[in-house]
Amino acid sequence: LPDIRNVDVSGQRVIIRADLNVPMAGGRVTDRTRIARFAPTVRALTDRGASVVILTHLGRPEGEKNPVYSTQPLAGVLSEELGQEVRFVPDCVGQLAEWNTGHLAEGEVVLLENLRFYPGEIANDRNFALRLSVHGDLYVNDAFSCAHRAHASTQAIAGLMPAYAGPSLMAEVEALKGALESPERPVAALVGGSKVSTKIDVLTNLTSKVDTLIIGGGMANTFLAALGHPMGSSLYEPDAAKVARDIMARAAARGCEIILPSDVVVAAAFAAHADNCVVPADAIPNDRMALDVGPETTARIIAAISRARTLLWNGPLGAFELEPFGAATFAVARAAAERSMAGRLVSIAGGGDTVAALNGAGVTEGFSYVSTAGGAFLEWIEGKALPGIEILTRNSTSTRVA
Ligand code: 3PG
């Protein structure tokens, strides 16, 4: 990959695609890991005399200018992490944005408004990419976690101007390559979280790559429902029942063991400290929802991890952000970190929620590698080509004067 660290950026305006898609609540950033990790990339460029224009998306505003998804609150957090003012520009294309990026002093840093306020972003629209490209002289992709998206700011723009990989993207690729090209077996994958439909394809593929597939979170509910269990008021996807059954059949055919919850913690409401109790996974009462896996399941998962040599983890086991429904996620995270620190497990975790959960358990340092990428991390595990990385590789092989 063409590495921006090998380029003289002095006096240049550098456009960086970052992934500052961080968890938010009530207009405030609730986990700043991605921002903190990104700050050194900016500092390395400003220290070398560049001015920096930051592009990011936040959430999925679907092409609408919805203020709930404004990137404005991120500018303040990034300023704190950098120890330097980051100016927010309330648009990402057009006159106002161009005026701001056209008048940058050396070392100045601006953050543009959410890219996904325009439909051209996810449509990978070349004209939209052109409108973005006028903000700088060079383009850097430092968003490994968006590299699985063929969007205007991750793919089309890289075909329009000198394009490089940023240091965080390089670090992610190097770490994952090292850990995944020939993993120590047995390999266990733990997949949880609530983005059920987006991860079902990933699960299908994992059945042929890993020895044990542990399924938790809202996704497990879809599997339990597919087995015919009553789900009460739990979150699940009835339309995905057939896919879930197909995944179980594929796993059985390939000798991949699937671990599903055998007990769950149910509550009357999706709320912290909601009235709760543990029930068997096939006996969820009508007016209760599953918010975490139970203690028996937690013990089974920990036992499965202690048999594995490599663990890939994406997605929490329960609603970890609500007390006390993070118990299983935190217990499993602690067990995995202990085994890793004892040199008995290579543990690789990825995903915004997963990172927040590991931080909550206080064990991030104990893991072998923690990636802030979610979907990109999983697609990489599947062995899929990531469009945001492919375009950089392709460009580097063509003749171009930077
Ligand atoms: C992520 O959080 O995984 C990335 O920011 C990508 O977000 P997306 O799934 O909305 O494209």
Q: Please give the share of residues in helix.
A: 25-40%
- How many structural domains are formed by the residues? 2
The fraction of residues assigned to DSSP E strands is 15-25%
How far apart the termini lie comes to 15 Å
Instruction: Estimate the mean pLDDT confidence.
Output: 93
* Overall shape: globular
What does the main sheet amount to? 6 strands, parallel
Number of helices: 14
CATH topology of the largest domain: Rossmann fold
Task: Give unreliable regions as ranges.
Answer: 398-402
Task: Give the CATH class of the largest domain.
Answer: Alpha Beta
Number of E strands = 17
Our Rg estimate from Cα atoms comes to: 22 Å
- Main sheet: strand order: 5-6-4-1-7-8
Indicate the CATH architecture of the largest domain.
3-Layer(aba) Sandwich
What's the oligomerization state? single chain
Q: Can you identify the CATH superfamily of the largest domain?
A: Phosphoglycerate kinase, N-terminal domain
- Can you list the ligands bound to this structure? 3-phosphoglyceric acid
The computed structural class is: alpha/beta
